[in-house]
Specification:
8-stranded parallel beta sheet, 6-stranded parallel beta sheet, about 0% helix, about 55% strand
Length: about 130
């Protein structure tokens, strides 16, 4: 049986100055992948595909520009470039990139919104 190496990958490119350069992720859901069901992870997640279900993540959730979640996201931090249709509960920082499209209620300790991002829902910030 051959051993498989797991290499940690940066969550974002080195161009992103708002998030830690040492951020790593172990789970990548690639473009073209569709998952129907819930995801629970103690590690960071990057989603470039489609998830119809909920995400509970102890660390950071990154939704790529072509990524889409239809369900609740609960995480320590989140960086959204794609679409989310559902509630978000973020205990730390939620960053919405200019391409983000969010529909649903959200709560976060800190919210960063780039010009061009769209949001439709109720917000609770600083809690």
């Amino acid at each position: 049986m051959a051993a498989t190496a797991v290499r940690e990958m940066p969550v974002l490119s080195s161009k992103d100055k708002n998030l830690s350069k040492d951020s790593k992720l172990n789970c990548v859901i690639a473009k073209g992948t569709k998952i129907e069901g819930n995801i629970r992870s103690s590690e960071s997640i990057r989603l470039d595909g489609v998830l119809i279900g909920d995400v509970v993540c102890d660390k950071k959730v990154v939704i790529g520009a072509k990524g889409r979640v239809e369900g609740k996201i609960k995480a320590s931090d989140a960086y959204i470039m794609g679409a989310v249709d559902g509630e978000m509960v973020i205990s730390g920082t939620l960053q919405l990139e200019s391409s983000a499209r969010v529909k649903g209620n959200l709560s976060a300790k800190k919210l960063i919104v780039d010009e061009g991002a769209t949001m439709d829902g109720d917000f609770k910030i600083g809690a």
